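re: that chain from earlier
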Amino acid sequence: MAKEIFDVTLFNEFTITCGKEKAIITEYLGKQLVNLFQVFLYYREQPVHKDTLIEILWPESDNPISALKFTIHRFRKDVQKIPFFEGKELILTVKQGYQLNPDFEWHIDSEEFGNLWEEIKFEENLSAKTMKIAYRMVDLYKGKFYISNSQLMWTQQVCEFYRHAYVKCVIKICKKLLEEQKYEEMMTLNYQAILLEPFYEGLHYYYMKGLLETSDYHKALRYYDDLNESFVKELGTGLSMRFKELYDAIMSDHENIERVKIDSLLKQLSRRTEEEGGFYCTFEMFKYMYELVMKSAMRDNKRLYLISFEISHEDNKEEEVFKVVNKVKHLIALSLRKNDLFAKINEGQFIVLVDCQTVKNAYLIIQRISHRFYKKFRNKKLRLNYYVTEAKLLDPEEAE
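^ sequence. v structure.
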C-alpha cells in the first residue's frame, strides 16, 4: 500500500497540503505545538530522544518532563482538528522518546532546498545543469524559514542557514547572467531577491551593476544614494568600498555622455504632471520644502495642515507593519492631490502636508486615506492612527 504524502511548506509560512486540501498549521496549533511539530519534521528520519526535546523546547523549565508529556498529549489531540490528520496517529512513542510516524511520506520545501544547495554550493561557475538547480532553489524560497513568536535558538540558526544559502545561490546565478550579458534577467532576479532579503549587499551590487551595464545612470546614482542612506539608518554603517568603486565607474561613464539640451530638460522636468497623487520625497527633503511652502503660504495668506499617520499592529508585531509600509505609501499617494507633499519619517510613520483652508477638509483627506487603508488590510490586525494640526513655522526658540 502506497504511503500517504504530505507536502510541507516552511518558507514564509507553515502549511501542509494533502491532495487538494491545504492547512495553515498556525491556525490549528498554538506556538508551542508548532515548535514541537517543526522539531519532529526536522528529525523525522529518526526517533527524537526526550532529552533532545527538553533541551530544545524547555531548556530553563523547572519541571520539563511534565511539560513534555502534557505537550505531546495536547499535540495528539489538537492535530486531529486538521481535516486530513483526523483519525491518524502522527507521533509514536518509542524507546526513550518519540518519532514521527514512518508510515507517512513528507515532502518538505526547506529540505529539498538544502539538498539542492549541497549540489551547487562549491561550484563557482554554474553549468546549464546547475543553473536549473539554482533556479529551482529560487522558486522554493518564498521568504524566511518560519519562526514562531517564541523564536527558539535552533530555528533561528536554521533560518540563517537558509537565508545565506539563498543569497549565495542568487549571486551565483547573477555572475553567470552577467557573463552572458543577460542584464534584464539579472536585474529582475535581483529585484525579487531584494524584496525578500533587503540587507544583503551582494544582491544590491548586481542590481546596480545591471543599471550600469544598461546605461541607466540616473537611476543607478539615485539607487546608490537611497541604498547608502538605508544601510546607515538600519545597520549603522554605509556601503562597502566595492560599491564606492562601482559608484565611481558610473560617474565616470555618466560624465562622458552627451549633454542634455534645454528642451529635453524641460520635458524631463514636466514629467511629474503626468503622475497621479501626492508628491513623495525623503523626510530631509520634506523639511526643506516645508519651509519653502510655508513661507509662500504666509505671503498668500493660505492655510495648510500637517497630518501624521502611524501604522500599528494589535499584537505589537513590528514585522507585520514593515511588510505593508510600501503599500501604505502608495495608497496615501493616490489619496492626495498633486500639490500635496508627503514623506516617510520611519518604518511605521508618514507625514503629510495638505493645502486646504479648513480643518474639516483635512479630515476629509484623513477619512479617504483611512477608508482605503482598512479596505486593503481588513483582516490583518493593523491600525492607522492619525494626528492633525494647522501647519506653521515656529520661532527658533519654539523649535528647540
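The first helix runs from residue 31 to 42.
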